[in-house]
Amino acid sequence: LAPDGKLVTVWKELTRELFAALALQKAALFLLLGLIVLVSTFNVASSLVVLVRERRRDLGVLAAEGAVASALVDTRNALPSAPVIRNRGLDRARLRAVVVNAGSANAATGSPGLDDAEAMARRAAPRLGLLPEEVAVSSTGTIGDRIDLQRVGAGIDAAAAALSPDGGAAF
């Protein structure tokens, strides 16, 4: 009641139930969209290629389904490998896949090593439905040896063909 005896109501009090329903709907949509983003972010497909001759895992492809938040951490070493140098030129927020090979670090290989790192990304990208600049590459192994592009290329083809939403644990 107002001092003059008139009944005063606030519009917000009259629409309290509407505001409560809107708040509940907003929270439900936020939760639903959050779950969709969470599932798509962690629904990562991966595959490993086991080379019959060496009986070890030599190459892996890890690819995210759809757009995801991404980041990249690399070495502070004064002599980075060719893949590290290549990846430094990428937009780290746009990465959607990484190709990893073992056996040759592709380090101390000069400009041919840079060409090899770029070739890995170019080989993987169309098989993953991506652009080469959305694919990071990584190599580990013997320093000074170039990667065997024929073997790595075949591994990328096989790994991309075998991608599976539940392959992440094998990566």
Q: Mind explaining what this structure looks like?
A:
With 171 residues, the chain is α+β, with helices and mostly antiparallel strands. The protein is built from five helices and four strands, in the order ααββαβαβα. The chain has helices at 11-14, 16-42, 82-88, 110-128, 149-161, and strands at residues 44-51, 56-64, 97-104, 135-142. Helix 3 packs across helix 4 (110-128). It is elongated, with a radius of gyration of 26 Å. It starts with 10 loop residues before the first helix and ends in a 10-residue tail after the last helix. The model is unreliable at 42-55 (pLDDT under 50).
Walk me through the topology.
Elements: H1 11-14, H2 16-42, E1 44-51, E2 56-64, H3 82-88, E3 97-104, H4 110-128, E4 135-142, H5 149-161
Helix pairs in contact: 3-4, 4-5
The succession of helices and strands, N to C, reads HHEEHEHEH
* Shape label: elongated
Provide the structure class: alpha+beta
Main beta-sheet annotation? 4 strands, mixed
Helix content: 40-55%
Rg over alpha carbons: 26 Å
Strand order of the largest sheet: 1-2-3-4
Quote the beta fraction: 15-25%
Which ranges are low-confidence, i.e. pLDDT below 50, for 5 or more consecutive residues? 42-55
- Helix run count: 5
What is the CA-CA span between the terminal residues? 70 Å
Q: Count the beta strands.
A: 4
Query: How confident overall, as mean pLDDT?
Result: 82
